[in-house]
Amino acid sequence: MKKLLATASIVALMALPALAQDAAAPAVEKAPAEKTAALHAGDVSAKALLNESVKNAANETIGDINDVLIGGDGKVSAVIVGVGGFLGMGEKDVALPYDQLVFAKDVGDDLVVTTHATKESLETAPEYIKPEDRS
């Protein structure tokens, strides 16, 4: 009789971790959905921005995005736009505040980045130099 009770107790104890895992499973499954809910329809990934052309109001390319700057508050503060030059030669980087960009999709569902800045205003803007490159 003692062996039967001992065996029943061991089987019951072995089943508890399985029950605990089943109870925790729904919470784990809901976590990604909670993160997804925090995203906004207009959110754009940094990877999608890199090398993307920046166009002006006349739909002319005025530069391309070379980098994305994240501020101390964890938000994107600016994008680094390469302007001027030819085939990458003579190009300079300038910081364009993120709130000056407008994002849209074209008919082919490709990202289109526009700004009210002009090519001339970006070419005359101070050059952005990465902090680790400053002497």
Present the secondary structure layout.
Layout: H1 2-38, H2 46-49, E1 53-55, E2 61-70, E3 76-83, E4 92-97, E5 101-105, E6 111-115, H3 119-124
Parallel strand pairs: 1-6
Antiparallel strand pairs: 1-2, 2-3, 3-4, 5-6
Explain the overall architecture.
The chain is an alpha+beta fold. It has helices at residues 2-38, 46-49, 119-124, and strands at residues 53-55, 61-70, 76-83, 92-97, 101-105, 111-115. A hairpin with a 5-residue loop joins β5 (101-105) and β6. It starts with a helix and ends in an 11-residue tail after the last helix. The model is unreliable at 18-39 (pLDDT under 50).
Short description:
The protein has 135 residues and is an alpha+beta fold. It contains 3 helices and 6 strands. Strand 5 (101-105) and strand 6 (111-115) form a beta hairpin.
Low-confidence stretches: 18-39
Task: Count every beta strand, where a strand is a DSSP E run of 2 or more residues.
Answer: 6
The rounded Rg comes to 27 Å
Strand content: 25-35%
Strand arrangement, largest sheet?
4-3-2-1-6-5
What gap, in angstroms, lies between the N and C termini?
Answer: 83 Å
Instruction: Specify the structural class.
Output: alpha+beta
The H/E string reads HHEEEEEEH
Shape: globular
Whole-number mean pLDDT:
76
Number of helices: 3
Share in helix: 25-40%
Biggest beta sheet summary? 6 strands, mixed
